[in-house]
């Protein structure tokens, strides 16, 4: 398990260093991870969703079509808002590039326009989050790792 986490961290650092993104120093990274944890717990308390939905979304960018889908959308919108990754449907480019994926080109702007006509806060926020994850997953699949 620890080897797996170490490899993921190592690949993340290698990926970030090749993307022109300067990683935060370790102390700031620890603070950010603590903030992400706090946001995750707060949003989980507000939006009781099956953990399986989080795992599925993190690996596929999709939520299952079930009774918890609307609540799951609220959870991801909540997490991005409370963690500072997004505010008022605008992505924090620095945080997204450092902690989600090193977005290139017009990816940030393109994702921010997702769901712009949606009146439901959770659905609109989720559309942006989903765009970020789909692009991150696609980039990860298309970048060879050595």
From TrEMBL:
SMART domains per the UniProt record, alphabetical: PhBP
Keyword tRNA processing: no
Recorded GO MF terms: odorant binding
Entry annotated with the keyword Zinc-finger: no
Keywords: Signal
InterPro entries hit by this protein: PBP/GOBP, PBP_GOBP_sf
Pfam families (alphabetical): PBP_GOBP (PF01395)
Record's signal peptide: 1-18
Name listed for the protein in its UniProt record: General odorant-binding protein 84a isoform X1
Organism expressing this protein natively: Drosophila rhopaloa
Phylogenetic classification of the source organism: Eukaryota, Metazoa, Ecdysozoa, Arthropoda, Hexapoda
